[in-house]
Amino acid sequence: MDTGTPLVEMKNISIAFGGIHAVENVSVDLFAGEVVALVGHNGAGKSTLIKILSGAYKRDAGTILINGEEAQINNPRDAKKYGIETIYQTLALADNVDAAANLFLGRELRTAWGTLDDVAMESETRKVMGRLNPRFQRFKDPVSNLSGGQRQTVAIARAIYFNARILIMDEPTAALGPQEAAQVGDLVRQLKTEGLGIFLISHDIHDVFDLADRVVVMKNGQVVGTASTADVTEDDVLGMIILGKCPPGAIPGPGALQIAA
Amino acid sequence: MTDVTSHALSKKAAAVNSSLPQRLLRATELDTRMLGMVGALAVIWIGFHIVSGGLFLTPRNLWNLSVQSASVAIMSTGMVLVIVTRNIDLSVGSLLGFVGMVMGVTQTEILPQWLGFGHSAIWIAAILVGVALGALIGAMQGYIIAYLAVPSFIVTLGGLLVWRGAAWWVTSGRTVAPLDATYRLMGGGPDGAIGAFWSWVVGLIACVALLLMLANGRKQRRKFHFPLRPVWAESLLAVMGCAFILGAVAVANSYPWPSAIVRRYATENNITVPEGGLFIAHGIAIPVLIAVGVGVVMTFLANRTRFGRYVFAIGGNPEAAVLAGINTRWVTMKVFILMGALVGISSAISTARLNAATNAMGTLDELLVIAAAVIGGTSLGGGIGTIAGAMIGAVLMQSLASGMILLGVDTPLQNIVVGIVLVVAVWLDTLYRKRVK
């Protein structure tokens, strides 16, 4: 799989908040049709790194290449132009408006008069939601009235509706029951076969080994190591997360524990 | 996700068992909260009518009520958007005073030097100056709030002091009067109303617009195969809407000019006044027409444009709005620009009605405007509110005030009542929202 130009290449990314290095000299890449899992403790810098890619944060240093070309990502709008869609851990839904308004937030469909085309947006929402969750019927309710799983479905629908090429999923199954989580797993596999590149942030190590092709472990804002999930065991990855110890099957990063040899 | 199916089932069961009013509400898709407000207004009106011995529900009182509500109603439409974005504007009363003074000086002292006294362009130039100045000041306050991240409470609290002071400064406290004759029409009065014929024309146009809107909504729903309202419900809405519009016009048209003005008009136009007097109706007052127009435009902005959608999204979840790529700062600034421009319009109406600009004009208006928006269902937590609700809220507040004046209630007691009503109204609203959830 490691042939050709990566879909995304983040090189030497750093960002600091008031002297704290949330992300320090991190390099990761992602190929089309690949799922790369980002794992690590809370505060390891996974979400921050991903927010740099999605345009929510501005990096202090480093470059982002999309298809081998340097990309200017300074805000979420820029990221979406490159086909980068994100499902945030917090879902980032406007609770007071309905599913259609959330799905098209920032990219509203408009009539010939330039006004909002609510009916068309609802119709499209019905189509995409029908694919993800055929039983969903509450199109007129504000999303605050929906269940956790339904809200998650809205967030996922928003990410896949606009033909994303790069999908970022930050804890996509955190709010879901086992059955719904399995549905998300199926969706990830399906999107993968369609050629999307997916960054998956997860705390669930089983999920990671189930879905991801490669795993990138972060600790204290640095990369401990990168490994193909076929080359390492779950225990190896846990060792990387907790101790920062890089096993033989992984490529060590700058954050790896330096063992005095 | 079993709750979806059970929800749908219970809905079906409810449809079978529900009473007539419930079915009526579901079929017409009317907002129950708005209906509740209209009901409260009706109770207040009928209550005052009975207690005052039949003085309240007269064409004369209702006509005056509509004129008195116009200024606050216009500002309350802007305040809804301000509060929906989780901000507040405490400066509107002072801003109204300052803009009014500038408009007064513009039309009585500055423009006549160039155009000559009583020039026909003076009134429009004065209004444009007022609206532009309001928008400019709104932009300044909005910039500080949105881009310099100073809380809106502080910025507009500062504005409250600054613009009240500035209003005094314009003429060192001197009252500016009288104002331009054409400009004065915006304040209402026998001349500042459009007469019976044009009132009917406006009413009919409004009815046609309502019917077209209903028809278009139905057409759109059919195009995308959405469930349609039953025909009887659509017809009921159309009939009720038209009856309300034409009823309002009829009330405005049954308030005659005072006999002295009729006599003056008759001698000016060489008409002999017949035995028993000549009946010349006021018709809809110009400030009311302006307020209704503002209400329609603002409702359109809030519900049918991207700007309105963004305003509500920011109120619902500012972080989500940013992540969706919305330029939240610019939207916030635009909300304050709009608020300022609306204050300009309200200021024109207030000064025209008084036929003078004074530096104390609009004192405490900010509180009336905020109260109108909040009584009208705007949540101070942000994200929730309707333009129509705020305008009804403004009428409700004015009804209380003028009803108590009719009854001869002392001013201190009036304030006590209005204050209590505000708190009780918001409490009831909280209860309602909890139950709906």
Automatic annotation (TrEMBL), chain A:
<dbReference type="GO" id="GO:0005886">
    <property type="term" value="C:plasma membrane"/>
</dbReference>
<keyword id="KW-0472">Membrane</keyword>
<keyword id="KW-0762">Sugar transport</keyword>
<keyword id="KW-0813">Transport</keyword>
<dbReference type="GO" id="GO:0005524">
    <property type="term" value="F:ATP binding"/>
</dbReference>
<dbReference type="GO" id="GO:0016887">
    <property type="term" value="F:ATP hydrolysis activity"/>
</dbReference>
<keyword id="KW-0677">Repeat</keyword>
<keyword id="KW-1278">Translocase</keyword>
<protein>
    <submittedName>
        <fullName>Monosaccharide ABC transporter ATP-binding protein, CUT2 family</fullName>
    </submittedName>
</protein>
<dbReference type="Pfam" id="PF00005">
    <property type="entry name" value="ABC_tran"/>
</dbReference>
<keyword id="KW-1003">Cell membrane</keyword>
<feature type="domain" description="ABC transporter">
    <location>
        <begin position="8"/>
        <end position="245"/>
    </location>
</feature>
<dbReference type="InterPro" id="IPR003593">
    <property type="entry name" value="AAA+_ATPase"/>
</dbReference>
<keyword id="KW-0547">Nucleotide-binding</keyword>
<dbReference type="InterPro" id="IPR050107">
    <property type="entry name" value="ABC_carbohydrate_import_ATPase"/>
</dbReference>
<dbReference type="InterPro" id="IPR003439">
    <property type="entry name" value="ABC_transporter-like_ATP-bd"/>
</dbReference>
<dbReference type="InterPro" id="IPR027417">
    <property type="entry name" value="P-loop_NTPase"/>
</dbReference>
<keyword id="KW-0067">ATP-binding</keyword>
